[in-house]
Amino acid sequence: MNPAQRDQAQRLFEEAIRGGTPDPASWVATQTIDAQVLAEVKRLLTEHSAHLTHAEHLPVETPSRLADALLNQILGDYRIEKLIGSGGMGRVYLARSTTETTREVAMKVLGRAVTSQIAIQRFAREAEVMKKLNHPAIASFYASGMYDDGEGAVPWFAMEYIANAQELTMWCDNKHLGLRERLSIVAEISDAIGHAHRMGIVHRDLKPANILVAVNGSPKVIDFGVARCLGNDSEMTSVQTQTGQLVGTMQYMSPEQFAGDPRKIDQRADVYALGVILFELISGTYPHDVRALSVHEAARVVCDIDAPDIRSTTSEVDEELSGIVAKCLRRERSERFADARELGSKLRSWLCGEPMSQPVAVFANEPAIAGRNRPIREPKQPHILETDTIRRSSGWLVPTLSVLLVTIVGLVATDTLKPQWLVDCWRKLLNSSGVQSAQEDLPAVVESISIESDPSGARVTIDGLDIGVTPIRSSIAWKQNSQNAMIIISKSSFQTHTESISAAPRGGRTAPLRMHVRLDPAATITVP
Fold first, then answer.
1. How sure is the predictor about 467, in pLDDT bands with cuts at 50, 70 and 90?
2. Residue 234, SS3 per DSSP
3. Residues 257, 245: contact at Cβ < 8 Å?
4. What are the structural domains, with CATH classification, of the chain?
5. How far apart, in whole angstroms, are the C-alpha atoms of residue 437 and residue 419?
6. DSSP per residue over 484-520, as a string?
7. Helix, strand, coil: what percent of the chain each, to 5?
8. Is the pLDDT of residue 330 over 80?
9. What is the dihedral of CA 358, 363, 367, 371, to 10 degrees?
């Protein structure tokens, strides 16, 4: 066993005994496919079980006593108030700023028992990653430092505390969100991950549990503890993932993550995870349900079998949306979206009904390649405007009309026919046929309008007609006597926005209408 394998085994052993896992040996088997590492961890677990002390048999009382040691302590500018969570790497506390008393933070403190150099480096790297990111849909970083617990220095960092948050799937289900609202929130998340990708950071563990939704409906991506940093930033890339080490949660891991080669893991691994999340939010199930499988069985399923067409699970999805989901879940990373930003753009285009520069429906219907057995659908034929009847009639109709038009022009030119007489005849013809009255009922101008809101997912009505939720593209049909249109944008927990749009001139506007509205939180009434 080489030093890298021994260090990996030590890290997995420490995480197994500190993570509260009922069966540490089974948990470790899901974290690595390296037989030597697995055997070494099992040896360490057996040795550990043979030397348990009396204190270690008190899993309930011991964490409580350890947690109490930090209560009311001040780390940096924050006073610790209570323990809110714990895991294999340490504990998370609720703390309050001593300088800004309204600011509450989640303070993550590395566990004293986690002593491996890689664990300490990963903790420090997570703080550095979060410090580098600045996006409204990513939990904010505030501060970091060290404290002395009497046995040496222990690292900590403070990040945004999201009060009363729910994980993504729970939020969507509890709020009974429809398809468009679910896609809108995934588009926001994609923007956040796209920001990380532009900074050279790959999350590597995207899943609903790591995406919290605040009470106002805003998503927040958390837990960059296993993030991979790309590029040449030596400080950010100092912690290397060893070949054969699995990083992530099996249900959301891409084929290249199962392969265990860190050199092949880039932004497209996150795109795959977002595709699984999309599939789950839309259909209520998974493209591959590997939760009950061993790591070897799960790897075989994800790496060798194509994800099913999501249209087989729900009737709400059209061909284009199915193509977007399918492109995220391609087994070959080169066939997926380049990064999460591109995925977010495609989702918004679908929500707005905009035509794609490359028809996304093609993504789901490409010929089978690289061993795939994907059915090939015949492309739809374009609608042909020229009918057989028109073609047959064009042999005599066009010459006849041409001769008639030349004759009328000649009569007018020689003053044989008066232009006013022709106008009067035309009006009488329209009145007798009822065409004029019909034209008065037709819209003079049909104008496109795109509406976005911050936050998105707001309900939109135009002149009392419900057209859907933001972001959305619709149209306004202006009648001859139209003066304006009333647009109402509303969302739970936010103030309703009302706007009156003046009617387009008879010739129409030179550019389409666009609205971007920032909704203010609803006023809270305090009852004494």
1. confident
2. coil
3. no
4. 3-57 (no CATH), 165-371 (1.10.510.10), 445-518 (2.60.40)
5. 24
6. EEEEEEE-TTB--EEEEEEPPPTT--SS-EEEEEEPP
7. 40, 20, 40
8. yes
9. 140
User: Amino acid identity, residue 343?
Assistant: L
Prior bond to 455 cis, omega within 30?
yes
- Looking at residue 184, what DSSP letter applies? H
- Which amino acid does the sequence have at 77? D
Separation of alpha carbons 80 and 71, rounded Å: 5
Could you report how far apart the first and last alpha carbons of the chain are, in Å?
A: 68
CA-to-CA dists, residue 293 to 33, 110, 273, angstroms: 14, 31, 18
> Which pLDDT score is estimated for 233?
46
| Residue entry with tokens 């050199």 | 263
Residues tagged active-site: 205
Of 428, 450, 509, 438, the C-alpha closest to 480 is: 438
Rounded Cα distance, 65 and 234, in Å: 39
**Measured distance CA(194)–CA(348) in Å, rounded:** 14
Specify whether the CB–CB gap between 28 and 41 falls below 8 A.
yes
> Which residue is associated with the tokens 């002390």?
53
Please tell me the pTM assigned to this model: 0.58
pLDDT tens digit sequence for 18-36? 554 445 666 666 677 677 7
